[in-house]
């Protein structure tokens, strides 16, 4: 009988009777170090991947803010580029605007008018108290003073909101929120229109994930279910569409994930959907799985080496897999699996 046939027969007998021990490969501690073998403790599976879908990173609702230009002008300096992280209040660009100069001159004139109106109101009040002028004259003077004060206040507020210096004609565009600049149309020397949005900033705390959920999975995926992205990033489903698109036969799924390196608005990714795991299932790294003799197996730590343990693959997604046939708490090999498989095919298992 060949070696691989021996192993196949041994593996086939393992699930047939609990009393039959799994084949064991004898591996010394020195060999384990040489082969770079590493193990982890198997954990019960709380959820299992049910599908992997193509998806797109998008900004969550209310997380995208347009930085508008309050006055038309010319970009003097740019301090931020697309993709740059910015703090709230950080300067993005400085703009020279003729309108800021004109607004400053109008503010000066308004203050002068306010001073005249204040003096006139004081004089009129004095004349009314002396009985020289009618009370209506005093009311007219106070109304003119309020109008002048309102004009000064309005122009001062506009210049303040724009971070503008009326003496130089410059104003500064600042980030209204902390986040990342997702797009910018700014070029030094270029003109911008009033109320244009030369910068778009996305809040850096979370991102949304949008995917098309196949019709067969509608009803299986629910709000609150877990999703997984490459790099160990996890999130939760926030909404599942109730309308099937007649062309794609799918519904829109949205999820929320925390900000992480590599997550950029508009990027295409793959997302794993997780559902409840079957009873007795455990989660292991996908790197722990091998195939010998047509069977799916893992290597578990034994007293003098590693046992070849057949398992049933329930689901796999990304870097993890869910299997049955393996007790929680067992130590499974995650690195050096191919070397152990080669040893198992090269020599009879067991002692």
From TrEMBL:
This is Efflux RND transporter periplasmic adaptor subunit. Residues 1-21 form the signal peptide. The keyword Signal applies. Keywords: Signal, Transport. Residues 65-200 form the CzcB-like barrel-sandwich hybrid domain. It comes from Sandarakinorhabdus fusca. PANTHER family: CATION EFFLUX SYSTEM PROTEIN CUSB (PTHR30097), SLR6042 PROTEIN (PTHR30097:SF4). Belongs to the membrane fusion protein (MFP) (TC 8.A.1) family. The lineage of its organism: Bacteria, Pseudomonadati, Pseudomonadota, Alphaproteobacteria, Sphingomonadales. The keyword Membrane does not apply. One of its GO terms (biological process) is plasma membrane copper ion transport.
């Amino acid at each position: 009988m060949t070696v691989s046939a021996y192993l196949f027969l041994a593996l086939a007998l393992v699930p047939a009777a609990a009393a039959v021990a799994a084949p064991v490969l004898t591996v010394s501690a020195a060999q384990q170090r040489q082969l770079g073998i590493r193990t982890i403790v198997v954990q019960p599976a709380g959820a299992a991947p049910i599908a992997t879908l193509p998806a797109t990173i998008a900004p969550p609702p209310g997380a995208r803010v347009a930085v508008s230009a309050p006055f038309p002008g010319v970009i003097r300096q740019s301090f931020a580029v697309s993709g740059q992280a910015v703090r709230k209040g950080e300067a993005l660009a400085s703009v020279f605007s003729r309108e800021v100069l004109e607004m400053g001159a109008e503010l000066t004139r308004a203050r002068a008018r306010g001073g005249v109106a204040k003096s006139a109101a004081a004089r009129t009040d004095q004349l009314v108290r002396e009985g020289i002028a009618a009370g209506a004259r005093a009311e007219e003077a106070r109304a003119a003073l309020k109008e002048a004060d309102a004009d000064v206040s309005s122009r001062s507020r506009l210049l303040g909101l724009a971070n503008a210096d009326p003496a130089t004609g410059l104003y500064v565009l600042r980030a209204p929120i902390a986040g990342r600049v997702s797009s910018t149309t700014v070029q030094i020397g270029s003109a911008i229109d009033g109320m244009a949005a030369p910068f778009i900033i996305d809040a850096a705390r979370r991102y949304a994930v949008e995917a098309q959920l196949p019709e067969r999975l509608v009803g299986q995926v629910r709000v609150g279910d877990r999703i997984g992205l490459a790099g160990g990033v996890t999130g939760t489903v926030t909404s599942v569409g109730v309308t099937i698109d007649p062309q794609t036969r799918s519904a829109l799924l949205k999820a929320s994930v925390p900000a992480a390196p590599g997550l950029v608005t508009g990027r295409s990714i793959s997302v794993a959907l997780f559902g409840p795991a079957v009873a007795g299932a455990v989660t292991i790294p996908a790197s722990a799985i091998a195939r010998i003799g047509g069977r799916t197996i893992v290597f578990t730590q034994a007293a003098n080496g590693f046992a070849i343990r057949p398992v049933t693959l329930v689901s796999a997604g990304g870097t993890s897999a869910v299997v049955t046939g393996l007790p929680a708490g067992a130590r499974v090999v995650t690195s050096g699996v191919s070397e152990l498989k080669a040893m198992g095919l090269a020599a009879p298992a067991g002692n």
